[in-house]
């Protein structure tokens, strides 16, 4: 009874992408309501909506209590154009926050935008990682503190993709981060 999706589209064609999204939602919302399906939406790098505040505005504009936000920690630097203020993002989301994807990342805007060298320089690419917590530049202390303060009781998911050759090791590190960060050490997950 729950589906996660992204805004998708093309950030270089935001007007057309938004129009297509709205048209699709007009067609899908009656089906979701009839079938009792909840929807969680995520803004994603290279989507027509990348910023956290814009994702929240769009979800609020849809005006359905069963449409909520997926927050991907690994996209934090895209959500506010290189700042990565995870606590502010979660606070802005408030009651819309339903699902948090846990992974670390590096700020793609750091080093005057030269952290990643792309050739040719004007190539249309979107680069980000999904690393183990602690391997990037996300402030996990602020993230977990904000989730605890909000008394978040939604879904928390491991979203690390960087170690397909060592998934058990990566999963253990991420689960440890989640348990300690949310004070869930005694809870068996």
Major sheet strand order? 1-2-3-4-5
Strand content: 5-15%
What ranges have pLDDT less than 50 throughout 5 or more consecutive residues?
Answer: none
Query: CATH topology, what is it called?
Result: TIM Barrel
**End-to-end distance, in Å?**
21 Å
Question: Helix tally?
Answer: 6
- On the 0 to 100 scale, the average pLDDT is 93
How much helix, percentage-wise, in residues?
25-40%
- Total strands: the figure is 5
Q: How would you explain this protein's 3D organization?
A:
The chain is α/β, with parallel strands linked by helices and 189 residues long. The chain has one domain: Divalent-metal-dependent TIM barrel enzymes (TIM Barrel, Alpha-Beta Barrel). The chain is 37% helix and 14% strand. The protein has helices spanning 14-35, 52-62, 76-79, 86-93, 140-149, 167-181; strands spanning 2-6, 38-42, 67-72, 97-102, 155-158. The chain has a 5-stranded parallel sheet with strand order 1-2-3-4-5, with helices on one face. Helix 4 (86-93) packs parallel to helix 5. The chain is globular and about 40 Å long.
Q: Can you give keywords for this protein?
A:
single chain, 189 residues, alpha/beta, TIM Barrel, 5-stranded parallel β-sheet, globular
Short description:
This protein is α/β, with parallel strands linked by helices and 189 residues long.
Describe the SSE topology.
Blueprint lengths: L1 E5 L7 H22 L2 E5 L9 H11 L4 E6 L3 H4 L6 H8 L3 E6 L37 H10 L5 E4 L8 H15 L8
Helix pairs in contact: 4-5
């Amino acid at each position: 009874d729950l589906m996660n999706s992204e805004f998708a589209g093309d950030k270089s064609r935001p007007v057309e992408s938004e129009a297509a999204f709205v048209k699709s939602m007009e067609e899908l919302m009656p089906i979701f309501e009839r079938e009792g399906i909840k929807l969680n939406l995520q803004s994603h790098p290279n989507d027509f909506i990348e910023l956290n505040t814009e994702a929240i505005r769009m979800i609020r504009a849809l005006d359905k209590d069963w449409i909520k936000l997926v927050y991907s920690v690994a996209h934090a630097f895209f959500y506010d154009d290189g700042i990565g203020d995870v606590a502010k993002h979660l606070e802005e989301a408030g009651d819309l926050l339903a699902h948090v994807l846990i992974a670390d990342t590096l700020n793609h805007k750091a080093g005057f935008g030269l952290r990643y060298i792309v050739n040719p320089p004007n190539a249309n690419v979107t680069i980000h990682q999904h690393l183990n917590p602690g391997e990037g530049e996300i402030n996990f202390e602020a993230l977990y503190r904000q989730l605890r303060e909000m008394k978040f009781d939604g879904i928390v998911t491991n979203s690390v993709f960087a170690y397909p050759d060592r998934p058990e090791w990566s999963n253990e590190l991420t689960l440890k981060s989640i348990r300690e960060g949310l004070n869930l050490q005694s809870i068996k997950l």
